[in-house]
Amino acid sequence: MAVVIRAAREKDRHDLGALKLRSSLAWGDHVEELQALPEAREVPAVHLPHVIVAEFAGALAGFATVLPGKDAVQAELEDLFVAPELWRKGIGRSLLAEAEHRAAALGARSLHVVAGERARPFYEAAGYRFAGTIATDLAPAVELEKELP
Length: 149
Fold this sequence. Notes:
- By secondary structure, this protein is α+β, with helices and mostly antiparallel strands.
- It has one domain (3-147): Aminopeptidase (3-Layer(aba) Sandwich), CATH 3.40.630.30.
- It has helices at residues 13-25, 31-36, 91-105, 120-125, and strands at 3-7, 51-56, 59-67, 74-82, 110-115, 129-135, 140-147.
- A 7-stranded mixed sheet has the order 1-2-3-4-5-7-6.
- Strand 2 and strand 3 (59-67) form a beta hairpin.
């Protein structure tokens, strides 16, 4: 079955938030902290126009959020989550490719992401380069960037 990518709809917000939390908890790290954070289970309404959804077999499989950068040269990959039971099926790669396409359409020359260390190999395999380490509320995270065509 093919992955279908589409724009998010308002009626998706609850399911997107639930998928975000489920995906975050799947690693087993920071479980109590994540469960206590309201933002770990929600997609802000203002982000919805920037959210792309992946469906697989007719069901929500993942999503990504691409926000325009402050300087318009760099866009921000705010979210990229895939349902844990669908990991390693190409859904994340499909979402990332569409996110890059959307960032380029915004006029960005690069796409920036802050991710946990576990996600670093995924991004590096897609051509992202390490740009630094930053502190987050839960743990240090890596910053990665990719130049866009």
